[in-house]
Amino acid sequence: MTKKQLTTFLIRWAISGVVMYICINLFGAFSDGAEWMRSSFWLYLSAGLIFSLVNSIVKPIAKIISLPLIFLTLGLFTVIVNAAMVGLTILLIPGVTMTFGGAICSCLLISCINFLVNIAVPSVK
After folding, report:
1. 3-class secondary-structure state, position 30
2. Which residues of 33-70 are buried (b: 16+ CB within 10 A; e: fewer)?
3. Suppose 16 and one of 48, 59, 88, 123 were both cysteines; which one would form an S-S bond, judging by CB atoms 3.0 to 4.6 Å apart?
4. What are the counts of helices (DSSP H) followed by strands (DSSP E) for the chain?
């Protein structure tokens, strides 16, 4: 990996961590014994990394499997796929829960923020 690619990855990881901070605090909940995690920097940083890994490994497979539904709904089913990726990320973070409606709101917020980030941070080829 070149220095530019590593820098781009670190910037996107940090932005994913900030986005997960916003989504978890707006739409998520902490279990009774895990309220102390709300202020943990490492929770959100790891959530950003988990979300990036889920999006790069699981999401392409989920999109291929759901391709007929994506065509049938003219692409609207991708919102459900994205919400499922947010839900899977939340399942992998101990002590944090989120409803499916919260996951849908989170994926819409993440899509808007990623759109702005893609404009601001050029892709590395």
Report:
1. strand
2. ebeebeeeeebbbebbebbbebbeeebeebeeebeeeb
3. 48
4. 5, 2
Contact between 125 and 27 (Cβ < 8 Å): no
Q: What is the pTM of this model?
A: 0.84
Q: What amino acid is encoded at 78 in this protein?
A: T
Q: Extract the tokens encoding 68.
A: 């007929």
CA distance 7 to 107: 25
Per-residue pLDDT, 34: 66
CA distance linking residue 21 with residue 14, whole number of Å: 11
Domain ranges in the chain are 3-28+40-120
